[in-house]
């Protein structure tokens, strides 16, 4: 009799253990399957300085940049203004130095191909993990970002399915092409041809900056900045293609200085809701860029 009771207790203990093991195994399987790779939720737009900022350089006449040197003033300014997120750089020439991320390429690499590499970098390292980023791009770098978002939204071959880029600021970007004198100086490299006014590359881009939430993309707020003293990109080309915010500086700031001028008051104007303000003293281009990626909440 006692042996029978002992056997029954042993069986009940085994059943409880088996049940507990099954519950534990089910919980583990649930944790592994609830959020598979690439399924992180889309973040919401927000105001603040917590986003990672990726600085993207422009065309290089000799096919190389020192990313740390290129964006030294801008990154230092952001840091001095207590920016909390990482301040990163993206480069696309094989001979570049000191970039947070650098991909292979030359002046003969089509801008669309650079855009594909940039889009996939952002997707793999940030979007797929549910992380949003901001972008500040100088010169041709703005075309790289513009094409990256446009072709991602179109689900073009080789581009990722979606991108979480919250804000983009372009400084001296040839949205309608570089000046005639720079076309001659630039030469016959593919990137020079892509930046020529009326090129097939530029014609393929829509006039409105890509900001759609279609296909799971995050809405992107755009600010374009140009200068009347820019000999590479005219004041009109720098803000060509409608953006949510457009800024122009009257004089005193050349093409390179758009990404290095961090202080002082400068004669400029801004367009909101399709209307230009009067020229008045405004913050520097780099400070304008920082305010743009910090403050623009709505698309």
Automatic annotation (TrEMBL):
Protein name according to UniProt: Lipase
UniProt keyword annotations, A-Z: Signal
Pfam families: DUF676
Sequence ranges assigned to domain DUF676 in this UniProt record: 53-184
InterPro entries the record matches: AB_hydrolase_fold, DUF676_lipase-like
Superkingdom, natural source: Bacteria
Keyword Electron transport attached: no
Keyword Nuclease in annotation: no
Signal peptide: 1-39
Origin species: Streptomyces cyaneofuscatus
């Amino acid at each position: 009799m006692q042996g029978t009771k002992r056997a029954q207790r042993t069986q009940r203990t085994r059943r409880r253990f088996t049940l507990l093991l099954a519950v534990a195994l089910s919980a583990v399987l649930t944790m592994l399957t609830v959020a598979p790779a690439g399924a992180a939720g889309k973040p919401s737009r927000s105001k603040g300085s917590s986003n990672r900022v990726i600085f993207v350089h422009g065309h290089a006449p000799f096919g190389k940049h020192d990313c740390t040197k290129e964006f030294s003033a801008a990154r230092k300014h952001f840091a001095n203004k207590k920016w909390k997120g990482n301040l990163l750089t993206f480069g696309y020439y094989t001979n570049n130095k000191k970039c947070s991320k650098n991909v292979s390429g030359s002046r003969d690499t089509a801008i669309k191909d650079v855009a594909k590499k940039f889009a996939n970098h952002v997707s793999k390292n940030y979007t797929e993990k549910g992380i949003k980023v901001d972008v500040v791009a100088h010169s041709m770098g703005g075309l790289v970002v513009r094409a990256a978002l446009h072709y991602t939204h179109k689900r073009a071959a080789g581009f990722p399915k979606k991108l979480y880029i919250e804000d983009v600021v372009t400084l001296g970007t040839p949205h309608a092409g570089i000046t005639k004198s720079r076309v001659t100086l630039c030469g016959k490299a593919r990137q020079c041809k892509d930046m020529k006014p009326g090129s097939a590359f530029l014609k393929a881009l829509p006039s409105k900056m890509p900001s759609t939430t279609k296909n799971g993309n995050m809405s992107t707020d755009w600010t374009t900045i140009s200068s009347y003293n820019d000999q590479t990109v005219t004041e009109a080309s720098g803000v060509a293609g409608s953006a949510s915010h457009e800024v122009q500086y009257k004089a005193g700031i050349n093409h390179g200085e758009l990404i290095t001028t961090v202080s002082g008051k400068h004669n400029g104007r801004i367009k909101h809701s399709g209307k230009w303000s009067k020229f008045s003293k405004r913050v520097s281009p780099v400070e304008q860029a920082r305010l743009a990626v910090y403050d623009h909440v709505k698309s």
